[in-house]
């Protein structure tokens, strides 16, 4: 993981050559790789992240990898937060466990967060999202008043 992290080209998310844009900070963790902050950009690899840290308990809106191959532990940690927007998994054999075990609106399997069919509803669970289901059909219904 460190070798791959050190090879990432980070910078302005608008630049096509950028592989990694803005990420969030975290305190209380062991930093394994940190090339230095450049504006809002802070590509890092960290370990031993405390369960009550910002990185775990808030929505980081950055690429986060939970390394333990202990799915029940990872899911329990994730489900213990006030948020449930989306998750991602690149292991098809573990996909059903993620779908059934995580309290999130979307489980991405081999896809980036944000991929969705426009007809499907999307928001977040718990304190995530904007509270209004997105997607073409749901959005149209939101702007209509039904009468009986």
TrEMBL record:
Its EC number is 1.2.1.8. Transmembrane segments: none annotated. The keyword Cytoplasm does not apply. Residues 38-148 form the Aldehyde dehydrogenase domain. Pfam families: Aldedh. One of its GO terms (molecular function) is lactaldehyde dehydrogenase (NAD+) activity. The keyword Oxidoreductase applies. It comes from the Bacteria. InterPro entries: Ald_DH/histidinol_DH, Ald_DH_C, Aldehyde_DH_dom, ALDH-related_metabolic_enz. Belongs to the aldehyde dehydrogenase family. This is NAD/NADP-dependent betaine aldehyde dehydrogenase.
